[in-house]
């Protein structure tokens, strides 16, 4: 993850968030938009990569491990946050980590198709650990992610993100409120204190 993660690419406009959308919907929407705009992946699709290699995967499909297909990033984020009952302050903190990552990445960094998923899981895990004495265990994160990534992979993602963020995970209550305000979300003192 740390060698080829992502690069700030062109912003992808997902359209405006409807004013009637809930705070959670706006936050999830912004998280998706932020992750998508952070990524620049290879232009070649997996099928093109297999064809370019002379069809090796099709000849040895019975012995070559095929990773599970990923859902859309929107569905993935919604599913993980719902199944783990992630608090809004934790999700805002994860989004702050994604924004910090954007500033630390070199312009030449690129990622694969699953990089946004990896960054989301790592930032969510770190944010939950920052706010909670009893954070989500990796095995529950594996289950919430549909088993797409294993425990070792998620632990490696967490370490790589920590290194890229230079181990700076501190987020002040003011930073949370400011970031939430920019997103049109009101996070009260009680939400921050109880996180």
Spell out the blueprint of helices and strands.
Elements: H1 23-38, H2 46-52, H3 56-59, H4 73-84, H5 88-104, H6 115-131, H7 138-144, H8 151-164, H9 173-182, H10 189-194
Helix pairs in contact: 1-4, 1-5, 5-6, 6-8
Please provide a brief summary of the model.
The protein has helices at 23-38, 46-52, 56-59, 73-84, 88-104, 115-131, 138-144, 151-164, 173-182, 189-194.
Task: Give your account of this protein's structure.
This protein is mostly helical. The protein has one domain (23-40, 71-194): Cyclin-like (Cyclin A, domain 1, Orthogonal Bundle), CATH 1.10.472.10. It contains ten helices and no strands. The protein has helices spanning 23-38, 46-52, 56-59, 73-84, 88-104, 115-131, 138-144, 151-164, 173-182, 189-194. α1 packs across α4, α1 (23-38) runs parallel beside α5 and α6 (115-131) crosses α8. The protein is globular, with a radius of gyration of 17 Å.
Low-confidence stretches: 1-14, 41-57
Question: Could you tell me the radius of gyration in angstroms?
Answer: 17 Å
CATH topology description:
Cyclin A, domain 1
Distance between the termini: 28 Å
Give the helix level as a range of percent: 55-70%
Mind telling me which CATH architecture this is?
Answer: Orthogonal Bundle
Order of helices and strands: HHHHHHHHHH
Number-wise, the strands total 0
Key attributes of the depicted protein:
disordered N terminus, 195 residues, mainly alpha
């Amino acid at each position: 993850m740390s060698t080829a993660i992502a690069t700030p690419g062109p912003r992808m406009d997902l359209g405006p968030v409807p004013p009637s959308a809930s705070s959670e919907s706006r936050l999830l929407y912004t998280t998706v938009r932020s992750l998508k705009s952070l990524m620049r992946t290879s232009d070649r699709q997996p099928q093109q990569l297999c064809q370019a290699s002379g069809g090796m995967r099709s000849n040895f499909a019975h012995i070559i491990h095929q990773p599970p297909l990923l859902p859309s990033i929107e569905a993935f984020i919604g599913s993980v946050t719902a199944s783990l009952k992630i608090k809004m302050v934790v999700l805002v903190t994860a989004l702050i980590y994604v924004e910090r990552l954007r500033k630390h990445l070199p312009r030449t960094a690129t990622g694969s198709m699953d990089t946004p998923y990896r960054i989301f899981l790592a930032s969510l895990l770190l944010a939950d650990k920052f706010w909670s004495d009893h954070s989500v265990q990796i095995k529950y994160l594996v289950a919430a992610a549909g088993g797409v990534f294993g425990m070792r992979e998620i632990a490696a993602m967490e370490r790589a993100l920590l290194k890229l963020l230079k181990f700076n995970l501190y987020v002040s209550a003011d930073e949370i409120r400011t970031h939430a305000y920019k997103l049109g979300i009101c996070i009260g003192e009680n939400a921050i204190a109880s996180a």
